[in-house]
Specification:
This protein is of the alpha+beta class and 312 residues long. It is built from 11 helices and 12 strands.
């Protein structure tokens, strides 16, 4: 595998991944029209439930059809596109630290592309596919005890990845370890403290850098300014609360780190293109409508119909 430098990875847009509800992962059921090159600190699993997609990972291109899945390692630039027909994907994103148990600090990389694996992996591929489908079904139905079933299926997938698909790749330990560690630390710091006042000075102090040097480093590595990234994290949290709670806009503003309700309205409208109240109304009525990100969402009946084909 070719060596990838810090600069080549960080030239692309950084995606903010947020997961809530006490779950150790984020799960999406979406269709893809196109999604430009981006990267994130999470590992990502793409499972094609219907149709086909083209996916570029770093400089390699893959085509996946119904039933195929692929794992994208963290800090890896990738992009998607539809291949002429409707598609439905199950996407699972999770923090790579989940792969470590008992306080270990191992670094895992995975070579898992069902469309390109050898026949001796066929049993593992079938188990993986079925586990993903069961995970998706539990997430969609949300029947009694679903949280425990979700975690059970999810951790069995992690175990399977580590046992059957992990690789030793010296080229992957390729990025300036010091830079990556600082970026990971500051992103984690923001994830934990976005609901509070976080100044540029405080963030710089957290990783022992001067504010000016920190500001330059953050923009160079993440691709956007510290202030913009912090706002994006807060906006994503606000969107989640608007969709899943009946909290007042004032309460959501306070819980997401905005100083007041009017600031949330102004920034939300600027970043999302709609007011918070408008977004809430739209999310309640939206079924399988395309959104600006290039995703298409589906209702639960469509999702279950696609998933159940892989559960036998």
């Amino acid at each position: 595998m070719d060596k990838i430098t810090v600069k080549s990875i960080f030239n692309y847009e950084y995606e903010v991944v947020k997961y809530f509800d006490g779950m150790p992962m984020k799960i999406l059921f979406v269709g893809i029209s196109s999604f430009k090159y981006h990267w994130h600190k999470e590992i990502e699993i793409i499972f094609v439930l219907k149709g086909s997609i083209g996916i570029n990972i770093e400089e390699k291109r893959y085509e996946l059809k119904k039933g195929d899945f692929i794992v994208i390692n963290n800090f890896t630039a990738h992009a998607f596109e539809s291949l002429a027909e409707d598609n439905m994907l199950m996407i699972v994103q999770f923090d790579p630290k989940i792969c470590n148990g008992d306080g270990k600090k191992d670094i895992y990389f995975f070579n898992c592309n069902s469309a390109a694996l050898e026949r001796d992996k066929e049993v593992s591929i079938n188990i993986f596919r079925k586990s993903m489908a069961n995970l998706g079904r539990e997430m969609t139905l949300k029947r009694g005890g679903y949280e425990h079933y979700i975690k059970s299926y999810f951790y069995s997938i992690i175990g399977l990845l580590i046992r059957q698909f992990s690789i030793k790749d010296n080229n992957k330990i390729k990025i300036d370890e010091f830079d990556i560690e600082r970026i990971k630390n500051i992103l984690s710091y923001i994830d934990k403290n976005y609901c509070q006042e976080i100044s540029l000075d405080a963030a710089a102090n957290f990783i022992n850098m001067s504010p000016s040097r920190f500001s330059h480093m953050f923009k160079e590595k993440v691709g956007i300014s510290f202030k913009r990234y912090l706002t994006l994290v807060r906006i994503e949290r606000a969107k989640e609360l608007l969709k899943t709670t009946n909290y007042t806009i004032l309460r959501i503003a306070n819980e997401c780190g905005f100083n007041n309700e009017s600031l949330l309205y102004r920034l939300f409208n600027a970043y999302v293109g709609i007011t918070p109240n408008g977004y809430r109304k739209k999310s309640l009525s939206q079924v399988r409508k395309e959104v600006p990100s290039g995703y298409i969402f589906f209702d639960s009946n469509d999702i279950l119909s696609a998933i159940c084909q892989f559960i036998k």
